[in-house]
Amino acid sequence: MVERVSSFRFLGVHITEDLTWSLHTTTITKKARQRLFFLRRLRRFKMDSRILCNFYRCTIESILTFCRCTIESILTFYRCTIESILTFYRCTIERTLAFYRCTIESILTGCITAWYGSCTDLDRKALQRVVKTAQHITRTELPSMEDLYSQRLRKKSLRIIKDPHHPSHKLFFLLPSGRRYRSILARTRRFGDSFFPRAVRLLKN
Questions:
Q1: Fewest C-beta atoms under 10 Å: which of 17, 63, 180, 196?
Q2: What is the H or E stretch that residue 197 is in?
Q3: How many Å apart are CA 202 and CA 205, to the nearest integer?
Q4: What is the DSSP letter of 66?
Q5: Which of 12, 128, 124, 123 is nearest to 60 (CA)?
């Protein structure tokens, strides 16, 4: 007998029985806010803005667009994190850059295209507040969650269009003009906010 649960975690994404993303966004927002502490500490040590931005992209932005990690990547990430904490007060730029490299390799991004489009306005604002906080700390302009989502959406869509063997390739059907794609009929808002209808709308603009 299979046990029924209200939510479960699959490849790092929390999926609920009502197919909403509030639990997932709450979880990743909490993780991202925890890492803002380290960003503030680096700023306190008067690190360069470029280094602060790299740290943000590797440790915070990657959480907001998180997909999944391999076991080896997780171990590498936590090993780097613990080492950075233990040596924090004598941290050098070289150590910080090494931490970035380890973090970049340890986190795979891409799943934002699956869940962000169907998020509620409240969840999106919570995610964007994390970005704004990091922007205030680094004192530099950072891409918004909406921009990140659009970039990933366009990139993934073009990859599907270029691959005629992709199962979803036929969903991107050019109109006779050869310049715009045929819209996908969506009878519900949930489907209209999913990946393929949004991708077609983005490519038409």
A1: 17
A2: helix 195-204
A3: 5
A4: E
A5: 128
